[in-house]
Amino acid sequence: MITIKKSKSKIKYFKIARALLAFIKTKTPHIKKYSDFYGKKAHFYAHENGKLVGGIMCQIQCKWLFIDMLYIDERMRGQDIGSRLIAEAENYARANNLMGLFVHTFEFQARPFYEKCGFKVVGCLENMPPESKAWTLQKEF
User: Fold this and answer.
1) At residue 6, what are phi and psi to the nearest 5 degrees?
2) pTM for the structure as a whole
3) Residue 45, C-beta contacts closer than 8 angstroms, at least 6 positions apart
4) What residues make up the domain containing 102?
């Protein structure tokens, strides 16, 4: 009998991740190691006079750089800090031979900003959050 249980076990997590990676490698020969598939992180931070005012947190996923978070202090917006952070992430992705960047953003967030940076909409999830939309955008090299 199959049972399903919730668990926070890191050992089980990595066991499943390794099994999934082994399967993915059989279908995508360009993925050689786990960090090509998922995991390696790249974070960049903006400071003004030593004070943290923004940052971009990214992670490699299947030869793409996923932007997990991008935030600029509200009083610092409009000064190209976000564009400079995107440029750093792009430089990192290119230096690591990644295919491009992708991001998920809510309707009330930064879709126009990403489009201004050269990203294209590739997907939309309706009612995420309820009565709104979530967008997926990519910038391919």
Assistant:
1) -80, 140
2) 0.81
3) 52, 54, 55
4) 10-140
